[in-house]
Design brief:
By secondary structure, the protein is α+β, with helices and mostly antiparallel strands. The protein has one domain: Thrombin, subunit H. The chain is about 25% helix and about 35% strand. The chain is built from two helices and five strands. Strand 1 and strand 2 form a beta hairpin. The longest helix has 14 residues. This is PilZ domain-containing protein. It comes from Kineobactrum salinum.
C-alpha cells in the first residue's frame, strides 16, 4: 500500500530488513515514498512492515524494511523461525539489530 493505492503481490523473500515481491500488473507507485507492506501469514491481523523500494529488476521488487512496530516484531520473528534452516542466524541478526 502507498497512499490510496494498493497492489496484491506474491511474497518472494523475507528477512528482518528486507522484503522481495513480484511486480504486479498496473504498478504505478511513487518510488521515493514509503510503503506499508501487509503480509498475510494466515493469522489476523496481517504482518505490517514499513519499507522503501530499493530495486526493480525483471518483475521483482526489493524493499528495505525501515520500521517494524512492537506488535509486529514477534510475529515476524515467529514467521522467520518457522522457515529458516538455522534459527541461530536469526538470533545473531537480532543481536546485531539490538532487538534482544
Amino acid at each position: 500500500m502507498q497512499g490510496g493505492s494498493e497492489w496484491r503481490q506474491q511474497l518472494l523473500g523475507l528477512s528482518l530488513v528486507s522484503v522481495a515481491t513480484n511486480q504486479p500488473e498496473g504498478w504505478d507507485a511513487q518510488y521515493n515514498e514509503p510503503f506499508t507492506l501487509l503480509i498475510d501469514t494466515g493469522q489476523e491481523p496481517a504482518l505490517e512492515l514499513f519499507a522503501y523500494l530499493q530495486d526493480v529488476d525483471k518483475g521483482r521488487l526489493s524493499f528495505a524494511v525501515e520500521h517494524v512496530d512492537r506488535e509486529n516484531i514477534e510475529p515476524l520473528q515467529t514467521l522467520l523461525r518457522a522457515h529458516m534452516a538455522d534459527p541461530a542466524v536469526l538470533d545473531e541478526e537480532l543481536r546485531r539489530l539490538g532487538q534482544r
